[in-house]
Structures are given as C-alpha cells and as structure tokens.
Amino acid sequence: MQITPELLSAILNIAGPPVLAFVTAHHAATGQMPTLDELKAELNSNIDKYLAEGAAFTAAHPHAGPT
Amino acid sequence: MKRICIALALMVSVGCATVPPLPPGGQALRTANEVVVALGTLQHAAIELNKVTDCGGVVVISPCQKLVSDANATIVVDAVTDALTTIKATPSGWKATASVALDRISTRLDAAGKGKLSAYINALKTIAGL
Known about the structure:
heterodimer; A: 76% helix; B: mainly alpha; 3% strand
C-alpha cells in the first residue's frame, strides 16, 4: 500500500477538522470563543480517546515486541 | 462576476473580523490539541494498518504479512502513549514532547515500518513544526 500525497491530504483533512470544528462550533453555538477551561477539557478528551485506543491495542498484543 | 467576487471577499473579511480571538493561553492549548490529534492519527494508522494483511495478490508467493508489524505498531503506541501522558500533565511542553516521541519512533521502527508510516510521521513533524 503506497501512501500518496492525496492520501496524506486526506489524513490531514481527517485530523485537522476536529480541532477547528470544536472552536467554530462553540463560537456558532454560544457567540463566544471557548474559555481556557473548555479548551483544556477538549484537549484532555482527545488525549483520553487516543490513550484508550493505545491501551486496547496493548491489551490485545501483550508480547508484541520491543518497546 | 467581478461584483460577486468583491461581495464574497467583503463577506469573508467581515466574517473573520467579527470572530473574537482565543483567550490568552488559548492558542497554546489549541496548538497542543492539534499535535495531540496528529500523534493520535499516527497511532491510529499504525493500529489499523496492523489489522491489514498483505498476501501479495492472487498468487501467494510469500507468507502473508501485516502492513505494519506488531513490533512496529507497539513502538508507535508506546511512544504516543508516553507523549500523550506528558502533554496531559504539561500541555505547554507539547513541542519538546512531540520531538522526543518522533525521535524514539524514527530510531526504533524498522525499514518496513518507516516506509509505511513515513507520511504520518511527516504530517506530525509539519503540524508540530519540527
């Protein structure tokens, strides 16, 4: 499977919007930009999501090679 | 057509001007969030490509192999997990943390892993400004 510039562009389109979407959606809904606490909560939410994905992989592959 | 373009340009510029800026410190959190998403996307790619098996087409002439091996996926997951844990504790240190994670991943992946994941690693470098 070759990762082409088109695929990379698609990846960035997948990765970028969640961050931008939060700020824009918040502004559209409230008329204000998110506060520091709300930005921190969004950051922690994303971190927790990816930590959970990594933990699930590790649990399924307990002896999967060098770390 | 020219009038439409000018009207659109005015609408866009007015629209941009009415959006207030992020609070002080907000931009740093937003950038940290972008780096987190880039790290998470790299990890997600490694995990999903680990689920895909390549048997070389219709005629199988070599043993089937995962697009990203268990060992390579584990290297990415471990490095990203450490980086995310650090960024959660210290969001302002996102750049140094991302740099350490990238070095660790680039050093430990084998050639096949580097080949399959290079686009995602490069995307992370670009987003983190490394």
